[in-house]
Design brief:
Rossmann fold, 413 residues, alpha/beta, six-stranded parallel β-sheet
Length: 413
């Protein structure tokens, strides 16, 4: 497995297809990927692809053609057995999450031990030792092993950490009727995370907001590196040009789109409050995405609950909307911002996410996430459709967040 000609080899460990395997793909392109260790990998000719069960549909997407020639180590069939056991015996979501993270690390360590042995058997003077890259909350045992081998360790931080949980706790205290099954993580979860951060030589975050959140939690600032997500649109609208009316009215209302998880963390309460303030204005609010909260009691004519849609239909809503809303309270990045920009949509966003918007150039940044501030921005858009047109024309090219940029950033580590 180990190839002496690989300079600065990397081993990537990840649960799921996070960011569609962007990190291992970038490393594989530069011939630095020694191995990808993941929980499931389904080749195009696998019998799994011919099974009709809806429950295994997500497994069929656990493959990427750009990694077809890579060394991928997966535990696909053990994953099915593990998930069945968890559904049978575990009722608490945190129990399931923690059990899954521990199970994956136990299985990944078997593969890492084999890699380490092959490296030790073939390593020569001057050969670079590997870098282990693993994502937060499922990395502790892997980082410990890597440090024992003398490898470099990099932690991919998937969110703003414990600070985000504190924000959510405060939001649910403000709106307790929407709490449902939400509970904070057990203290041991955060203790393990802090040890992950301690063991990592570098901690990769996707936005300045995440970096600030980790610093606020006491994580060593010198370790933190900001590398935005890589994004390659599955559909590239050719010569997309938006047209706005001279004025918005009830025959041609301003269409404001929210697309993503309909949860409190995304600033949903500010959106609902803004919709209430603006119910006498020609503005429609479209909510597209799965909701973990029952908002059935909110029945306003200017709110359209569309719910989950197939990925193939998402582009329709980007095309038909006039402005994209992303008033998140906390996000590691917020990839939907880049999707919206692909369709030349002006954005109204908070500052608690990845830096896609330049204020008053390709969108508007909220000074704070409240119903009032969001309503003010939307009223401005309503009264100035020509300004929306200007913002659309200055939409940022999502290709600047491409895989080549990610590859260069990873190499700089």
């Amino acid at each position: 497995m180990f190839q002496a000609q690989i300079k600065a080899p990397w081993i990537c460990c990840q649960i799921g297809a996070r960011e569609d395997y962007a990190v291992p793909r970038a490393l594989h392109q530069s011939k630095q990927l020694l191995s990808l260790i993941t929980d499931a990998w389904v080749l195009p000719d696998s019998p799994i692809n011919y099974l009709p069960f809806a429950a295994i549909k997500p497994l069929k997407e656990r493959f990427h053609p750009e990694l077809s020639s890579a060394n991928v180590q997966a535990i696909t069939f053990d994953l099915g057995r593990f998930e069945l056991i968890q559904k049978t015996f575990k009722s608490n979501s945190w129990q399931r999450t923690i059990a899954r993270n521990q199970w994956f690390q136990k299985k990944a360590l078997v593969q890492l031990s084999k890699i380490a042995k092959e490296i030790n058997d073939t390593i020569t003077s001057g050969t670079s030792r590997p870098t282990l890259f693993a994502y937060s909350y499922a990395a502790l045992d892997l980082l410990r092993f890597a440090k024992e081998q003398g490898w470099q360790t990099i932690l991919g931080q998937i969110d703003p950490g414990i600070v985000e949980e504190q924000i959510m706790k405060a939001e649910y205290e403000r709106y307790p009727i929407y709490r449902n099954a939400w509970n904070p993580a057990p203290e041991s979860y955060w203790e393990n995370w802090r040890e992950e951060c301690s063991l990592a030589d570098k901690i990769l975050v996707n936005s300045s907001w995440s970096a600030k959140a980790l610093q606020k939690a006491g994580i060593n600032t010198e370790k933190i590196r900001i590398i935005p997500l890589a994004y390659e649109p599955s559909i590239s609208p050719s010569n997309c040009q938006r047209t706005y009316p001279l004025t918005f009215n009830y025959d041609r209302p301003l269409k404001a789109l929210f697309l993503g998880q309909v949860i409190l963390r995304k600033g949903i309460m500010a959106l609902l409050e803004a919709a209430q303030y603006l119910q006498d204005q020609p503005i429609e609010f479209w909510f597209v995405g799965q909701s973990e909260i029952n908002f059935a009691h909110i029945n306003q004519p200017n709110i359209h609950w569309i719910g989950s849609v197939p990925r193939s239909e998402v582009s329709r809503y980007y095309q038909e909307a006039d402005v994209f809303l992303f008033p998140t309270l906390s996000d590691g990045f917020g990839l939907t911002q880049l999707e919206a920009q692909t369709w030349k949509l002006p954005l109204i966003v908070s500052s608690f996410c990845g830096e896609v918007v330049q204020d008053n150039i390709n969108g508007l940044i909220l000074p704070e996430v409240t119903g009032n501030t969001l309503a003010e921005k939307l009223l401005f858009c309503l009264e100035n459709p020509d300004y929306l047109n200007q913002l659309s024309q200055h939409a940022k090219d999502p290709s600047r967040f491409n895989l080549a940029r990610l590859r260069t950033s990873l190499q700089s580590l």
